[in-house]
Amino acid sequence: MKVGIIGAGNVATHLVKGFLAAGIEVPVVYSRTLASAQELANLSPSTKATASLNFQELPHADVYLIAVPDQALPELVPQFKFPEGVVVAHTSGTQPLEILQALSKGSAGVFYPVQTFSKEKEVDWRRVPICVEGSSPEAEETLLKLGQRQSDQVVVMAGPARRQLHLAAVFACNFTNHLWGIAQEVLQQAHLPASLLEPLVEETMRKAFLFPPFQVQTGPAQRGDTSTLEAHLKLLENLPQYQELYKTLTTSIQAAAKKK
């Protein structure tokens, strides 16, 4: 199976690396900027870089994966020209499969890897869940087989469930990472190293994987420790945006405790 990659950002970069490592040929990589496409194409001597939207005139692939920002999909999709009989899928957690209906030839699908990707950090693709969806049984089977070449957890998932999963992922990943960034900023103001909190964060995540998180919640909000909460809010007076976030999270924790 040969896979063409459309995009040159974080997701596209890891897809190319993952496919090549799995022995899957990547004949073509597209980016609006030819230099960005060429950077990825340099990973394999048989990969061609392109800034053309006409894939009918480029090395053939069996599957084309569109790994571009969600907001770019509606504008880009109608401009593509793909060969007949291919499967074209996007990698978005939120965009519906139907956004690819503008493609007049071939089958459409979704190939959504549930992971955070940064070019600077390698990932173990065997541990990355991949959600697939196809406009036909044949397209779905093709995407399933492709995913199984990379991952030990590949599931067929319709759009509504995939969007719920993506929402949950934002809370679990993006918001958690942001809170860790805030914690580091608070430490920096006191000239304290982040290493002091690393064991705490590691244990928190280990425990959250073993037990229902709301049931093992700790801290001043959970205890109703008003004096500590007020002291923390006072320390955040010079960071009003974080002070408001502290209040919101405190209220959420206390509401969850009452529900439990």
From TrEMBL:
<dbReference type="Pfam" id="PF10727">
    <property type="entry name" value="Rossmann-like"/>
</dbReference>
<feature type="domain" description="Putative oxidoreductase/dehydrogenase Rossmann-like">
    <location>
        <begin position="1"/>
        <end position="105"/>
    </location>
</feature>
<dbReference type="InterPro" id="IPR036291">
    <property type="entry name" value="NAD(P)-bd_dom_sf"/>
</dbReference>
<dbReference type="InterPro" id="IPR019665">
    <property type="entry name" value="OxRdtase/DH_put_Rossmann_dom"/>
</dbReference>
<protein>
    <recommendedName>
        <fullName>DUF2520 domain-containing protein</fullName>
    </recommendedName>
</protein>
<dbReference type="InterPro" id="IPR037108">
    <property type="entry name" value="TM1727-like_C_sf"/>
</dbReference>
<dbReference type="InterPro" id="IPR018931">
    <property type="entry name" value="DUF2520"/>
</dbReference>
<feature type="domain" description="DUF2520">
    <location>
        <begin position="128"/>
        <end position="252"/>
    </location>
</feature>
<dbReference type="Pfam" id="PF10728">
    <property type="entry name" value="DUF2520"/>
</dbReference>
<dbReference type="InterPro" id="IPR008927">
    <property type="entry name" value="6-PGluconate_DH-like_C_sf"/>
</dbReference>
